[in-house]
Write a structure and sequence with these properties.
Layout lengths: L1 H7 L1 H21 L5 H16 L8 H17 L3 H8 L2 H26 L3 H8 L4 H10 L5 H23 L13 H15 L11 H18 L5 H15 L9 H18 L8 H30 L3 H8 L4 H10 L4 H17 L1 H18 L2
Length: about 375
């Protein structure tokens, strides 16, 4: 009886939630699933919350702490070398990103018609990249089906992660970019290390981490007060970047911090997912796979155009535009001797564009659509 009472207490239910999340993360890690500490806890808590009578508990403060951590890692990528790399091809980056997003909006329109779902959910499910950011945006947007958005995003990620390496190593894709100079190699190293590294030495964290933590928390609090979109993510990102530009070095976080942040976000999202909200589960899953494949084909088509505009190999262009993780694309680019600086620059630009530009733009579009629907136009 005492054990049952403890399990029914808030602390007991929190420990059950944490145990399920850790088990899911470890299992997905052993299975070599992409971003295991996000997807593992998400799936584990989803299963437990929907198949048992246990009422899981996960304090909102943990999710906020995780978003501050993710925001800090985003801010770290905004280094001077990364900004210079992106500025060299800014017009082309903007063009390719805009075309990719327009293509995704078209895919969302098709998916919404075939699945008989709302366009808001289909559009958010089709945004290429930024899984955490898109899920948060979907949560804050009224009238969206969070479960559908998450399912579509996760399936798209799996399709990209599986297909891109196969295409990158395919003999049908040209790989030669020419030899890089020593200066280019140095720049490449700086950009990739700043943008894709997830591990760091504990000894280098202090004392600077304390300053960055204080700035991140303050920016998150201020952003929340002024109703800034996804304040706990973008506030710390902006604060971290600004502090770095003053000359203060921001230490990279050990993988333990990053994995813990992913776990805290994954649990939160997993508890929000309600599979019963999906009226046609099999059809939704098949359409999500089709959406991922169409997005991949669209990226491949744009990569052909990019390879002509910039005189780079098809492999470099494909990895630059692939709607997957920047770290994974960087690893593949290094392995096949693609232009790593270009891949990192394009991937970083799209990530920042999605983080900072897409949310207010989508909110504006949804606001206009809702206004027209309410007025009967």
């Amino acid at each position: 009886m005492i054990w049952v009472k403890r399990m029914n207490s808030r602390f007991g239910r929190f420990m059950v939630t944490l145990g399920a999340a850790l088990a899911g993360g470890i299992l997905f890690k052993l299975l070599h699933v992409p971003i295991p500490w996000l997807l593992g806890p998400m799936i584990a808590t989803l299963i437990v919350s929907n198949t048992t009578k246990v009422k899981l508990v996960w304090p909102g403060q943990l999710r906020q702490a995780a978003m501050i951590t993710v925001g800090y890692t985003i801010g770290l990528s905004l280094t001077g070398s990364a900004m210079r790399e992106m500025s060299l091809q800014l017009p082309t980056m903007l063009l390719m990103t805009a075309l990719l997003l327009l293509f995704c909006a078209f895919i969302a329109l098709i998916i919404s018609k075939l699945s008989h779902s709302d366009y808001k959910s289909a559009l958010l499910g089709s945004v290429p990249g930024g899984l955490s950011q898109v899920i948060l945006l979907a949560e804050e947007t009224k009238g969206t089906n969070l479960t559908m958005v998450t399912v579509t995003q996760v399936v798209r990620l799996m399709v990209i992660v599986i297909c891109i390496p196969l295409l990158a190593y395919s003999p049908m894709i040209s790989h030669y970019d020419g030899e890089s100079s020593a200066t280019e190699v140095t720049t490449v190293t700086a950009v990739v290390e700043a943008s894709t590294s997830s591990a760091a030495l504990w000894s280098g964290l202090f004392p600077n981490l304390i300053l960055f933590a204080a700035v991140g928390v303050a920016c998150a609090w201020l952003g929340d007060k002024i109703k800034f979109p996804t304040a706990y993510l973008l506030g710390p990102a902006i604060g971290t970047a600004a502090l770095q530009f003053t000359g203060v070095h921001g230490p990279e976080l050990p993988s333990l911090f990053v994995n813990a942040a992913q776990l805290m976000i994954g649990v939160y999202v997993g508890m929000l997912l309600k599979p019963q909200q999906l009226e046609h589960k099999v059809r939704t899953l098949l359409l999500a796979i089709a959406s991922g494949l169409l997005m991949l084909l669209g990226a491949l088509g744009l990569s052909v155009l990019l390879s002509k505009l910039q005189s780079v190999s098809e492999a470099t262009a494909m990895l630059s535009l692939a709607p997957g993780g920047m770290d994974q694309m960087g690893i593949i680019a290094h392995a096949i001797n693609a232009d790593l600086s270009m891949v990192a620059g394009y991937q970083l630009f799209r990530m920042l564009f999605i983080f900072f530009v897409v949310p207010p733009l989508i909110r504006f579009v949804f606001k206009v659509v809702d206004k027209r629907q309410s007025s009967g136009i």
